Amino acid sequence: MEKLELYIHIPFCVQKCRYCDFVSFANCEEQFASYVDALCREIESCREKYSDYVISSVYIGGGTPSILSADQIQKITDSLFRNFNIVNTKERHKGLFLQKKIRPTTEFSIECNPGIVSKADFSAYKKAGINRISFGLQSAIDEELRTLGRIHTYEDFVRSFEDAREAGFDNINVDIMQAIPGQTMISWQMTLGQVGTWHPEHISAYSLIIEDGTDFQKWLKKGKTISGEERDGIFLPDGSVKMLPSEEEERDIYYFTRDMLEKSGYKRYEISNFAVPGFACSHNIGYWKRENYLGLGLHASSMVANVRWKNTDDLSAYIQDPENVHEEEQKLTVKEQMEEFMFLGLRLTQGITRTDFVNTFHRDIDLVYGPVLDDLYDQSMIEFAEDAIRLTQKGIDVSNQVLAEFLIDSKQES
Ligand code: SF4
Hints:
The chain has helices at 32-45, 70-83, 90-97, 119-127, 142-148, 154-166, 185-197, 215-218, 247-263, 282-288, 315-320, 334-345, 354-361, 365-378, 393-397, 399-404, 410-413, and strands at residues 2-10, 12-13, 25-26, 53-62, 107-112, 132-138, 172-178, 202-207, 220-224, 230-235, 241-243, 267-270, 273-275, 293-296, 301-304, 307-310, 330-331, 352-353, 382-385, 388-391.
């Protein structure tokens, strides 16, 4: 049976964070029940089409999934277990799982915002078959959380984390954010130190990107640091200005993070992701390895058998007719598949292998990328380790630039 990852999108939040460009809406409580019904209808409609796939991971993301009631989450998970092969065989999950006699071994994550999820909710998630929690903490410094427009404090996170542990979750991720306006190396060290005391199994440390259409983008201007250096800053409506870290500071923060987490027993398995051995996120790895994934819910993306599509971002249209909301499908060309294979696979610290390339595309990688590989190797951006090709630390430092080299121009294509 072929593998398929499932992503379920919950597009609601308590309030919009100032940096967020995801499809998520605040103040929509009256839509929750009809959205969950629509989602279950979409799930049901996939039953026959994907009956030959075994589900390798499930990820309920958003938005803020934990904004829904535990009953609504359970309604969604029950529908997933009824309609997909989440546990090894259909007979097992349909019969025994719903009688609560077995638990899925498949990684099954839900994103939670600290502060709006209770101990009872975590216990209900556990009973519903969820076995991994992902907390969006972002910072342990309350002032930084306020700058970001987050709804919670660090104390809220501590309570939620303890509640999740007490409910029996032994696989927890914490998202933290680098390059927050006003962040310094010292405040970052405090965030990392505080998170470390809770020993989560997984830590994602991404850098903030100022996206179009966000409050931060509207408030972005050139300003002066205390030392007089001109730099980008966020000019907040209360009149305060928070400068963005320089590239150099960001890089120092990145090195510090890597070194400190590695000393604490975490292994970096992707440019921005760290895990205790055995707890790397299989959902994310599947994405970087280009496994099939099916996105369900508003504006969710899918890629199955090298065909991509997205669901509509129109909430009313989705709720009305969730079975017919695909926007135009795009069949990926072989060239596009190769490009993705390289620039997604090279994000993993283990890199890609020549053998996987040949098995996937029936062409030797040197025939397609020989000159690019030689050039990057000469610049010490990549290294070869037996069959593997991977980024060096120098390559990771400028990964966007390096990965862009794998876009195939017409000369390479021939
Ligand atoms: S909680 Fe997440 S999805 Fe919701 S607004 Fe904030 S960043 Fe966006």
